[in-house]
Amino acid sequence: MIKILKRDQPSKAIFFFTPVLAIFLTLVAGGLIFFILGFKPFEALKFFFIIPIADKYGFSELLLKATPLCLIAIGLSFCFKSNNWNIGAEGQLTFGAIVSGGVALLFYEQEGFYILPIVILAGAIGGMLYASIPAILKTYFNTNEILVSLMLVYVSKLILDYLVVGPWSNPEGFNFPETRQFSDSAKLPLLFEGLRIHAGIFLALAAVVISWFVFYKTYLGFQMKVSGFSLKTAKYAGYKGKKMIILVFLISGACAGLAGVGEITGPIGQLHREISPDYGFTAIIVAFLGRLHPVGIIFASLVVAITYLGAETAQIFMQIPKYTGQVFQGMILFFLLASDYLLFFKIKFIGSKK
Amino acid sequence: MNTNLKISNVTKIYPGCVANDNVSLEFNSGKIYALLGENGAGKSTLVKILSGIIIPDEGKIYLNENNLNLNSPSDAKKNDIGMVFQHFNLFETLSVFENLIIDSDEQRESLREKIDLIMKKYNFPIDLDIPVLNLSAGQKQKVEIIRCLIRNPKVLIMDEPTSVLTEQETSELFLSLKKFSEEGILIIYITHKLKEVMQLCDEVAVMRRGKLVSVSEIKNENIESLANKMVGQNLKTIKKKKAKTSSDQLIKITNLNFTSEDPFETNLMDINFSVNRGECLGIAGISGNGQSELFQVLSGEIISEKKSIEFNNNYIGDLNPQERREYLMAFSPEDRLEQAAIPQMKIFENVALNNFKSSNFFNNGLINENKIKEHSKKIISDFNVNTDNIELKSQFLSGGNLQKLIIGRELITSPDLLICFNPTWGLDVGAINYIHETLIKINEQNKSIILISTDTDELLKLSDKISVIHKGKLSKIMNAEVVTSEKLGILMGGAN
After folding, report:
1. Do residues A342 and A306 share a domain?
2. Which residues form the domain of A149?
3. Which of A296, B152, B328, B476 is deepest in the core (most CB within 10 A)?
């Protein structure tokens, strides 16, 4: 007989074990899906998870995809740790990209070391501005930040659409929905000849270190932590709860905006309609898979980035639709949430006695 | 047909707290029974056991001699036990009728006829087709009652039903309940309001700290006797030595008002009092009469008019708790686990919640962990907190040790005034004595205390002056030496 018992306290070992368990279950379920579709499960999984990163180019592509995921997830971890459900990082990314792209276009055909920092800063500010909308509506008008931040995603995508088709479209671009290529001074430098991996990865790593420092070492982080656990306690301690809420949204928006900058000034080099394959949404999975901890998020971003690459490889070599990648991302979140049940409950097998 | 409901030796233990300790009770239809007790006395646990929401550790429930197995709310419904909760369980956006048919498997048409009949019979004029959100609290409660009546219940349990009702709605409710009782429905009425018990009920069972204290007929009781039973008899009054009288005023509250938008909160009306140095002002009252709001106003969680609070010759009514701490005030809230401390955080992190400039816990925006840890160790040893590991998450401390940590955290800075709210609630005797001794000690050091408590014994033991709060109003301030628990009981019940 199986008996389910409530744990007296959540287990710390299980806390770090469930993400691993979730990944394992995702692989099992993925293999099963491949089998049902008529592929050899192990071979398919190999195409999905091993082949794409087997060489230097593949590995650099992994880092390229992991960079925005990591950056956004770090920002989201501030929101999620303090119970603010910002799920509109995709919109903040897009808006950050729009603002920084606009600035980069201003400097079209100009050169100078100062251009790139301004472009990057513009992206962070754009993301913050966009994140401040759900934050202010939540704190002062009691709106639900889940709905507002989500709906704003579509608004920002439509703004981008309008800009690249209309006023910002490349005059020499034969009416393609895209802007001019940015000048080299507005582009993030590539790290290696022949690979697409760019300096944006340093932005992500800096975000990891800074977020760890802020959250665990500063008074500000302490106040955010307390406010996240209990607004009642925050009030009792005299912290300004509303300001904390706006602040975590701003941090999160800045990170998403920077991720947008990384994409358009890195591998893309211009604005067009599809600057992000839903990095902003996928980063939600990364944040939770990484247990909202900076180091955990690094690992989680690498794991989830593989699903992007794997989907492409599998499409090319096995004619599996590339949307399988999203299926895998969904399964990871699903299994993670399901196995979190083990945090609070333990399963006991009781030998049947006759 | 007569209904007989018997609770036999029911025990329910939660970690660190016995919610029901071997409770046995018997009810017969035709009478209205009151189950009286303060918050935390165990009455809610008992009725949740009757309605199948909580499963007792020990004990049995019999309805007309049949042993009931109540494992879920639907078991209770099947056995004709209906319950109306204090907070309504209605879908606000659905219509009244939709709410009523949700958990019924009867045909819509026949149910509608049945509901019409019930409404006519008991004079409940409610439009069945408007959404519930357009109803008043009294009407919503009627919808809940109708939902029970549809099932022809033998037992109807009402949990603190008047807390959201106006006076007029209350008397309407009482008329209906009396009618139900005449028709043979067994009514169990849960409350902490003494006046209502006297008005409505035939028999009263009093609970205190999980135990059944007494069962008696209303005609043999009065408000004072019930109040005494409810808050605990004044067994022994070890009063502290009278502190040397000081006329040095420390805090003065003038014309303080608070109006809440939340219907579950109590408004404070025209609060005036002052406390001198070295004095302990006790504020008595049955819980839910504005104590929590008063504590928040005094601590700065609720900001009031600047001049309404004068502390040490400064007007501080508009300052937040952290700013008030700078003026040497300290606060110990009632809720240890959700407000005064964060169980998931470590002991030394909880110590850092009491932060002000001279504490140096945070320098230039950085956490000064060494300083906090050093300070925490001092609290642990000075205040007998039974652990030596300041890295321990505070959820692993017992209630008594956690309270010692909180009181220690507040007192180690030698504040001029400590405001505490139910500081010994739910603690064991040893911890209670320790806290009491500590509070007496601060008075001896010429520091002041405002003690808001629902424990009359505690108040009589520790206070120099006592006032009673009732429906958000303070009684006049009395000298503790001339106050008896009987007198407090009467004032707590709302009499003048």
Report:
1. no
2. 65-319
3. A296
Residues A140 and A203 in one domain: yes
Task: List chain B residues with CB under 8 Å of A238.
Answer: 300, 320-325
Interface check B338 vs A, CB under 8 A: yes
Domain count of chain B? 2
Residues A141 and A287 both lie in one domain = yes
Q: Most distant CA pair in chain B: distance in Å? A: 77
* CA-angle at A256, arms to A251 and A258, nearest 5°: 95
**Distance, CA of B269 to CA of B462 (rounded, Å):** 26
Nearest to B164 by CA among B125, B193, B198: B193
Distance, in angstroms, between A248 CA and closest chain B CA?
17
Beta-carbon contacts of A85 under 8 Å, excluding residues fewer than 6 positions away, are A79, A145, A146, A149
User: How far apart, in whole angstroms, are the C-alpha atoms of residue B456 and residue A157?
Assistant: 64
A75 and A172 assigned to the same domain: yes
pLDDT digit string, tens, across residues B224-254: 788 778 777 553 444 566 656 677 899 999 9
Cβ atoms of B189 and B32 closer than 8 Å: yes
What is the per-residue DSSP string for A197-222? Answer: -BTHHHHHHHHHHHHHHHHHHBHHHH
- Strands B362-363 and B309-311, by their bridges, are unpaired
Residue B101: what residue type?
A: I
* Same domain as B211, residue B123: yes
**Among the partner residues A218, A229, A232, nearest to B345 by beta-carbon distance:** A229
- Distant-in-sequence, close-in-space partners of A101: CB < 8 Å, separation ≥ 6: A168, A179, A182, A264, A270, A271
Read off the tokens for B338: 């959700």
* Residue A217 with chain B: CB contacts under 8 Å: 366-367
Contact B342 A233 (CB under 8 A): yes
Residue A233: its chain B contacts at CB < 8 A?
A: 338-342, 353
Among B143, B149, B148, B120, residue whose Cα is nearest residue B131: B143
Q: What is the pTM of this model?
A: 0.70
pLDDT of residue A68: 97
In Å, how far is B418's CA from the nearest CA of chain A? Answer: 14
| Structure tokens that stand for B393 in this block | 């998450």
Task: Give the integer Cα–Cα distance in Å for A336 and A332.
Answer: 6
> Looking at beta carbons, which residues of chain A come within 8 Å of B338?
230, 232-233
**Exposure on the CB side of residue A181, measured as CA atoms within 13 A:** 6
- The 10 Å CB-count burial string (b at 16+, else e) for B369-388 is eebbbebbeebbeebbbeee
Q: How far apart are CA A288 and CA A53, in angstroms?
A: 24
Residues from chain A that touch B339, judged by Cβ atoms under 8 A, are 230, 232-233, 236
Give the residue among A245, A207, A289 at the shortest CA–CA distance from A79. Answer: A245
What are the DSSP E strand ranges found in chain A?
Answer: 2-6, 345-349
Is B368 in contact with B349 (CB distance < 8 Å)? Answer: no
- Which tens digits make up the pLDDT trace of B178-215? 999 998 999 999 987 788 888 899 999 998 888 898 89
Please tell me the distance in Å from B352's CA to the nearest CA on chain A: 9
Host domain of residue B15? 4-231
Tell me which residue of B393, B132, B474, B335 sits closest to A9, measured CA to CA. B393
pLDDT < 70: residue spans in chain B: 1, 15-17, 39-40, 163-164, 166-167, 233-245, 426, 428-429, 496
H/E element, A130: helix A115-141
Name which of B338, B344, B366 is nearest A217 (Cβ-Cβ): B366
Kindly state the greatest CA–CA separation across chain A.
85
- B224: tokens are 């004072």
Look at A235 and B301 and tell me if their CB atoms are within 8 Å: yes
**Cα–Cα distance for residue pair A128/A88, rounded to 1 Å:** 12
Per-residue model confidence (pLDDT) at position B164? 67
Strands B417-421 and B268-276: unpaired
Please check whether residues A153 and A266 belong to one and the same domain. yes
